[in-house]
Amino acid sequence: MKKECNIVAIYIRVSTLDQAREGYSLDAQEAALRKWCADKKYEVYDLYADRGVSGKDIDHRPDMRRLMRDARDGRFDVVCFWALSRFTRSVQDLYDTMTKFQKWGVSMVSYTESFDTSTPMGRAMIG
User: Fold this and answer.
1) pTM here?
2) What is the pLDDT of residues 69-84, one digit of tens each?
3) Distant-in-sequence, close-in-space partners of 85: CB < 8 Å, separation ≥ 6
């Protein structure tokens, strides 16, 4: 039986001022994700925000490293983010992170895409 997911970590990131101007600002991402959590009656554990850093490499993002530590320590059940491109731009980092999250019992949800590993279809995507 699947455990109820109700403690959420919100991850937001922008790498350039252009992204902020195009509606991907940290404030816009945070507001949408907090509303999504409230609508689902999810508790927000913490907000993790990396400003002005590339999505290419997870290891060089301070709040992504903090998020990974907290995930490993079981502090939340779900990580939600605006879009996969805000989470990572590396297919290898995505695969490695999904593998770790699966081991730790953490699901991933993209707000703007059909990517949700808390559902049977979403889990099937990662094998």
Assistant:
1) 0.86
2) 999 999 999 999 998 8
3) 55
Residue numbers annotated as active site: 15
C-alpha span between 56 and 85 (Å, rounded)? 9
The encoded tokens of residue 43 equal 């508790």
- Distance CA(67)–CA(55), nearest Å, equals 15
Select 7-121's CATH number: 3.40.50.1390, 3.50.30.60, 3.40.50.2000, 3.30.70.890.
3.40.50.1390
Nearest Cα to Cα of residue 117 among 89, 87, 90: 87
CA 34 to CA 124: how far, in whole Å?
A: 27
Measured between alpha carbons, how far is 41 from 53 in angstroms, rounded to an integer? 31
Instruction: Decide which of 31 and 3 is more confident.
Output: 31
How does pLDDT run across 5-16, given as a tens digit for each residue?
Answer: 689 999 999 887
Q: Cα–Cα distance between 111 and 122 in angstroms, integer?
A: 13
Residues in the chain: 127
